[in-house]
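User: Continuing from earlier, I have the next pair ready.

Assistant: Great, send them over.

User: Here they are, in order.

Assistant: Folding the first of the pair now:
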Amino acid sequence: MDEKLSHAIEVANFNTSLTAQRHMYKTKFDNDCLYAHNGGLFEITENLLSYVDLLIRHEHVGFILIDKNNNPIMVDNLETFFSDILEKYSMASNSYYASISKLRRKRMVSRLVQK
């Protein structure tokens, strides 16, 4: 009985640790997706990327965007803004993916050890 209890505690500790690490990596991703521009702070999301891309395709050069704090911010050069946020988002996504992939491998190895 003590062995089963010990194993259950071990699994619970692993799950708690896994959840905490996932949360930590998600928080890092969210922080890495913040972009400061002209006194504003933008949260880089797929929506922002798509919206700025749409503005560029409709031949807007500059545009007023609403930042994370609901402040109107003038973006004078949308193409530069877009390439900057796309690069920042790509780097954050790749880092997040690599971190989560490492967690997945750890999770699979632990399952193999238990069998």
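And the other member of the pair:
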Amino acid sequence: METAAALMMQGATASLYVTRPMTKDYIPTRERLTAVINAVFEMYKSETLEVLIGPSYALEDAAEAHRNLESRNSTGKLVLSAGNWGGDKERQSGHSQ
């Protein structure tokens, strides 16, 4: 919220534009997109690209997962599970739903 207020104040005295880049800003054509995607999959297949998957959380623990993201206490992607398997905590404790 503080950032938004600062931007509004700055905008009152100067021309100010805030933009959010999109994929098309970096990869303008379908051919380029296909080439980039193929390169990423080749890196994954050759194991030169490491995909970091962080802890898994049961859906009811989504607030805790969100806190870990906000506090930067996590590395990689966090997984929310809505199925019977309730994530790392359940697996570690041996409990099931």
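Worth noting for the second one:
Strands lie at 53-58, 77-81. The two ends are 39 Å apart (CA to CA).
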